[in-house]
UniProtKB/TrEMBL annotation:
It comes from Lactuca saligna. Gene3D superfamilies: BRCT domain. This is BRCT domain-containing protein. Signal peptide: none annotated. It is found in: Nucleus, Nucleolus. Keywords: Nucleus, Ribosome biogenesis, rRNA processing. It comes from the Eukaryota.
């Protein structure tokens, strides 16, 4: 009972009351059709932050990492959703989730913290090990998302607000741990060409390799060492770029912002997902995306015969 009574004086509840009062005043001004009054009321819109609740809930950084699974899954989900005004899912919110998810992936990839990846019907599961904590999250497939009507998006957006702030704190701490400024300053050319994840990994790559690695990290970062991959247009580019880079490979793709062309003679493997190719290079293997995921889970380079398209 004492704890519940203490909540009455929580600063966040005070802000919620102020927000309720503000909405009433604004609604009243709009009903009077007084534009000047609406504008004056709008300038006094109350704001709040979740810094204090997050610090109370997660007193240490390890506590935050232990509870990050659901937050990462939620942020990656909204990063893949379309903006829908009727559900109050705004474009700015989608962009925020997109940025946070790419910052996380770039850190995990370039510091070689990824340990496992699994493709399922629901999406792609990943597991990373950060500061000794195993963190598992799910990302949707890169397809157009169908928005079900029986979901309460208002509740999901409430949780998302907490998770956005939590992931922002975590990313800030991780980037500072490798002496990088946060939020990242990206190459505008890569951003303009929609090569977002590549832009983030380029930002992280120059310092990530300077850190001391444990034995498992060293094994992960050398699995695809001295191997060069090229991604055809039909395969999931962002996912493969993430996992190949995390395990030490060099990767390019078909499209804008690619670091090198398909004709590059250093390419060892071309990831494809259709039987017929307009042209083939005899110096490389043409394999399905599943080969990459099976290799990283087995921690060895598997034979490619069973992964040829059409088999």
């Amino acid at each position: 009972m004492k704890d519940i009574l203490g909540l009455k004086h929580d600063p966040l509840l005070v802000k919620f009351r102020e927000a309720r009062t503000y909405e009433k005043k604004k609604k009243k001004a709009m009903s009077k059709k007084n534009k000047d009054l609406v504008q004056r009321v709008s300038t006094h819109k109350p704001s709040y932050t979740l810094d204090r609740p997050i610090l109370e809930r997660y007193p240490t950084f390890i506590d935050a990492l232990r509870d990050l699974d659901d937050g990462l899954t939620m942020v990656h989900l909204f990063a893949a959703l379309p903006a829908i005004e009727r559900e109050n899912i705004q474009v700015e919110r989608i962009h925020s989730c997109r940025g946070l998810s790419l910052e996380w992936q770039a850190y995990v990839s370039r510091t070689h913290k990824l340990r496992k990846a699994f493709i399922s019907v629901k999406g792609i599961y990943y597991q990373a090990e950060v500061e000794g904590q195993k963190i598992t999250w799910l990302t949707p497939h890169a397809l157009q998302q169908v928005m079900p009507q029986d979901v309460d998006y208002k509740i999901m957006l409430t949780f998302l607000e907490l998770y956005e702030n939590l992931l922002g704190f975590v990313n800030f701490k991780l980037y500072n741990s490798i002496n990088l400024k946060y939020p990242p300053i990206l190459d505008p050319r890569l951003k303009a060409s929609a090569s977002d994840l590549y832009a983030f990994t380029r930002y992280v790559e120059n310092v990530a390799d300077e850190n001391e690695d444990d034995e498992e990290t060293r094994a992960c970062k050398t699995l695809f060492k001295d191997m060069t991959f090229f991604l055809s247009r039909e395969v999931p580019r962002e996912s493969l770029l993430f996992v190949i880079t995390a395990f030490g490979g060099v990767v390019s793709w078909e499209g804008d912002g690619a670091p090198f062309e398909e004709s590059n003679q250093s390419i060892n493997y071309q990831i494809v997902d259709r039987p017929s190719q307009s042209h083939r290079f005899i110096s490389r293997d043409y394999i399905q995306p599943q080969w990459v995921f099976d290799c990283i889970n087995a921690r060895i380079i598997l034979p490619t015969e069973d992964y040829i398209v059409g088999k």
